[in-house]
């Protein structure tokens, strides 16, 4: 009887293992229809995806500077300025504090940032598909500038989030 229970438990674990393993794989990140490649894979910490800073900010068209003394990163794009500090949960967007769910980290000698925060702080839309472990980002122009960024498939009317344009046609 004891052997039968152990054998059935083993079979249950064997069949569950393939269903659990994709959750531990690195997510795919797509920005404006292009899959990003990273020299160090993205990681998930406390249900938040962290990605190497260089790849995400280059894809979103932002400028990045590093302050070695304060261990901080300053990101600028248009009129938006983001300041992040290693191992801190407080970031600043246009000098206003924002509490992050996870801090900026250094992993394998690379600086990792919370993907959703930095993307949305730069006026991008972020979608997560749990089944395919894919994060899709659509970059947007700064609404105050009234321009559509190159590579963007549409624009959102921020006074009415249900109204947007795709290829020049309102929806």
Automatic annotation (TrEMBL):
InterPro entries: Cu_amine_oxidase-like_N, Mao_N_sf
Source taxonomy: Bacteria, Bacillati, Bacillota, Clostridia, Eubacteriales
Copper amine oxidase-like N-terminal domain residues: 31-137
Annotated SUPFAM superfamilies: Copper amine oxidase, domain N
Organism: Desulfofundulus thermosubterraneus DSM 16057
UniProt name for this protein: Copper amine oxidase N-terminal domain-containing protein
Pfam families reported for this sequence: Cu_amine_oxidN1
